[in-house]
Write a structure and sequence with these properties.
Blueprint lengths: L14 H12 L5 E2 H8 L3 H13 L3 E6 L2 E6 L6 H23 L4 E7 H7 L9 E8 L3 H15 L2 E7 L1 H5 L4 H8 L3 E2 L12
Parallel strand pairs: 5-6
Antiparallel strand pairs: 1-3, 2-3, 4-5, 4-7
Length: 200
């Protein structure tokens, strides 16, 4: 069953189509086989093929065949590339870009996008988010985290606000902040250097 359009950018016909285009447009120098994109984004093969076909027919992406693999590329010559890239960066960029940036920091055990941005991304209705809240579990050096947040803020055009908790703090269910974060929508980021694709 097709998921409804994403609340953060309801211009697309489905969440899968928006996430696929975001993955291809936000990483134009990292084309991937369609099968790998399906695993990365958590989209079944049939749905992914249909969405890729629609995007290609619209001239937004292009395909290349290498053996039996279909490689999807951003069509950077498209009249809409710059504007769509900017929209996708603002709406879906945090989920795609913050995980790989955090993966480069030492001593981070887990990372989550929390707050209103995560809630909208995961489909909870509400006002547009004004910033992006990032929760890091571990013991990264604050200076490195702060530099990363400033760089991401510049790229995304949205303020990225990091919070660091130790594993012991994160395990403390008596802490009001921890209870709220665990209760509210949150998106766990992959820390293996692969862009985040779906709800975690």
């Amino acid at each position: 069953m097709r998921k409804p359009p994403p609340i953060l950018l309801p211009l697309f016909r489905s969440e899968g189509q928006a996430r696929l285009l975001a993955r291809v447009y936000l990483f134009p120098n990292r084309p991937r086989p369609l099968a790998d994109l399906g695993r990365e984004l958590g989209i079944d093969r049939g749905t992914l093929t249909r969405e890729a076909d629609r995007l290609e027919q619209a001239g937004l992406v292009r395909s290349e065949r290498i053996g039996r693999q279909r490689i999807l590329h951003a069509n950077t010559d498209s009249l809409y590339f710059s504007e769509l890239n900017s929209l996708l960066l603002k709406a879906l960029g945090p989920a795609s870009l913050i995980g790989p940036a955090v993966a480069e920091l030492p001593n981070v055990d887990m990372a989550f996008l929390i707050g209103s941005w995560a809630a909208r991304y995961l489909g909870q209705a509400g006002p547009p988010p004004g910033d992006v809240d990032l929760l890091l579990i571990g013991s990264p050096e604050w200076g490195a985290v702060s530099r990363m947040a400033r760089e991401l803020t510049s790229v995304l055009g949205q303020e990225v606000n990091p919070t660091i908790l130790s594993p012991e703090q994160w395990a403390n269910q008596a802490d009001g902040f921890v209870r709220q974060v665990r209760r509210d929508p949150r998106l766990e980021l992959r820390l293996d250097g692969v862009p985040e694709g779906g709800a975690g």
